[in-house]
Amino acid sequence: MAPDSIVDLSEADTRFLRRLEAELGASDLSKCFQCGVCTASCPVREVEASFSPRRIMKLAKMGLKKQVYASDTIWLCSMCFMCLERCPQDVRPPEVMTVLRNMAAKEGVAPANLSKLLDIIKQNGRVYSIDDFTNEERGDRGLPAIETEPGFIKRILEVKG
Amino acid sequence: MRYGLFLGCTIPTRQMNYEQSAREVAKVLGIEFIDGDYGCCGFPVESVDEVKAFSMAAANLKIASASGDVLVTLCSACGEMLCKAEKRLCEDAETTKGVGKVLMQANVSYAGEKPRVLHFARMLHDDYGLDNIRAKVVKPLKGLKIATHPGCHYVRPSTLYPGFDDPEFPGTLDRLVEVTGAEALDYPGKTDCCGGGILAVREDIAKAMTGKKLAKLTGKTDAMVIVCPFCGIMYDKYQRTLEEELGKEFGLPVLYYPQLLGLALGIDSSKLGFDVNSVDVQSLLEKAGV
Fold first, then answer.
1. Rounded to a whole number, what is the largest CA-CA distance in chain A?
2. Which of A66, A129, B266, B284 has the most CB atoms lying inside 10 A of its own CB?
3. For testing contact with chain A, the best of B48, B190, B237, B259 (most A CBs within 10 A)
4. pTM for the whole structure
5. pLDDT, tens digit, 9 for 90 and up, residues B55-93
6. CA of A63, closest CA in chain B: separation in Å?
7. Left (φ > 0), alpha (ψ -120 to 50) or beta: where does A81 sit?
8. Judging by beta carbons within 10 Å of its beta carbon (0-12, 13-18, 19+), is residue B286 exposed, middle or buried?
9. What is the domain-level CATH number for residue A59?
């Protein structure tokens, strides 16, 4: 067994565990019995051997926050929802993944590209800005022009907290 | 038939072929779309801040409810996000409270409006009906072999789409292809994920997922048919790059469903946005006899 696959349970972070439990809502991580259907169903796992939703469920359940946040693994779930359909315990791994991502992001541990994307959406109200050139091409194709900036998105994303 | 139309971010700027063909098809079928001043659905924000993402969805739902009872999305991720927001805002008091707070501070009035949200393909399949589409087909696409790629959010999580498709063996898109006269293939990997969801995080992994499916389908089908712009970006826009990187030739045309349906409805191909498609579709159009 590789040394990095050995876990030290004394590293469990109980505050992390309590928050995770409070945030999880409908998905119930405590029911996970490590059957591995999630990992076996995972299309990311098929091309990237380091990714294992089963392992993430286990690490999170044990409160090993450092290891959950340490690598980029919680950010690799592509949200295809196949494991959610197949999980015999209704743990809903993608929902657990989203909760973990939200918690990590609040602590400033989000991939730089995602933070950048958020800034762009805040700026434009959408992922891609609409400029005159876009609306001109739309016009050429008989498509209606689009309002350049939906201000309500900016206002929502600027709310603190 | 009248529907609100939610375009999302990618389609009206980067995948206009989907929008153009959907609008052309709607005209022929007698479906009226009502546009609105929508913003991002919230999907890309979900992984960082769920409450903000649901707030964005709610603000969009509010706009949608002004234009009618049913909102149609072309993007599967938008559809999933908006449906999920409606479900969570019904069932999860904590989230609802959080969203209410954000919207109040953002000066958005939301009174719990929850219009029915339908994916464009589901609207055609469930609401418009296969027989009614078939009745409008003037140019059956006999002889075309199509591999449908339903993608993920169109059918999953299935709890968001009660009474719709099978999450393991989706068939609605196949039936929609069959009414055009083309053949819909059964093939292993139909439910594969395109990888688009992690493109921003790990492009290499996303591309590996895309390449795997393209390699599996090469030579087995005349085209792939999709209903989500993320799948379009991955399978169509990235196909050339993947061919170069992997040293393989795919040459697999990737069509949005309304592009295929448009041909069968006799719409001139110049109106279906094929110039936006990255992979050459000329041989496919010839095979379809247009």
1. 64
2. B284
3. B48
4. 0.96
5. 999 999 999 998 888 999 999 999 999 999 999 999 999
6. 20
7. left
8. exposed
9. 1.10.1060.10
Which of chain A's residues have a Cβ under 8 Å away from the Cβ of B20? 141-143
Prediction ipTM score: 0.95
Domain of A31, in residue numbers = 7-106
When CB atoms are compared, the residue of A80, A152, A157 closest to B152 is A80
Which of B10, B107, B156 is nearest residue A82 as measured by Cβ atoms? B156
B145: closest CA of chain A, how far (Å): 25
Beta-carbon count within 10 A of B216 CB: 14
- Which of A157-161, B16-20, B134-138 has the lowest average pLDDT? A157-161
Q: Which residue has the tokens 């954000």?
A: B102
Co-location of A76 and A137 in the same domain = no
**Torsion angles phi and psi, residue A127, rounded to 5:** -70, -35
Helix ranges, chain B (H): 11-14, 16-29, 50-66, 76-91, 93-105, 120-122, 130-134, 172-178, 203-217, 229-231, 239-246, 257-264, 282-287
Using one digit for the tens of pLDDT, what is the confidence trace for B227-281? 999 999 999 999 999 999 999 999 999 999 999 999 999 999 999 999 999 999 9
Report residue B290's pLDDT band, with 50, 70 and 90 as the boundaries: confident
Mark yes or no for CB contact B48/A127 under 8 Å.
Answer: no
Domain count for chain A, please give it. Answer: 2
Position A66 pLDDT exceeds 80: yes
